[in-house]
Amino acid sequence: MTEFSQRPIEDFCCQTDGCPDQGKRGMGNLCFRGRGGKDDQIRMILCKTCGKLFSERKGTPLSRCCLPVQKALDVLQHIREGCGTRATSRLLSVHRDSVTRLSRIAGAHAKSLHDELVAFSPCDRRGSI
User: Fold this and answer.
1) Contact, 67 vs 18, CB < 8 A?
2) Quick one: which H or E segment has residue 92?
3) Stated pTM of the model
């Protein structure tokens, strides 16, 4: 079981562009419908609003990742600790292109999440008179 497989349906939202419920959690429009990926470990989610089926990993840094979840998380942990691409590749027996791809995707994901959170953070009044 992966860490994603433990999450309840309320934690997810529709990832389909143009869906009226896109990005809205807990709307009651999602249900699990089958499994996909190697060994059928990735749950598929159906949006009842738009009728589209998507992976529980869609919209995450692990989307379309072929590595086992724990191996991918280990790669990201090494990168976070400042280990280089080639060293991470060598230490974890992962191709350097996989390390680079995960790093880029996770970085872009973190940036967009940061920008979203900063946009809605309260103003800092410490510097004002």
Assistant:
1) no
2) helix 85-92
3) 0.68
Q: Is the pLDDT of residue 114 over 90?
A: no
For 98, residues 6+ apart whose C-beta sits below 8 A from its C-beta are: 67, 75, 89
Confidence of residue 66 (pLDDT cuts 50, 70, 90): confident
Calpha distance 60→37 (Å, rounded): 15
Question: Residue 60 contacts by C-beta under 8 Å, 6 or more apart in sequence?
Answer: 109
- pLDDT recorded at residue 121: 65
Listed residue (42, 47, 49) closest to 5, CA to CA: 42
Q: How many degrees, rounded to 5, is the angle at CA 109 between CA 51 and CA 28? A: 30
Q: Which two tokens stand for residue 87?
A: 């060293």
The tokens of 14 are what? 């529709």
Look at residue 127 in the predicted model and tell me its pLDDT.
59
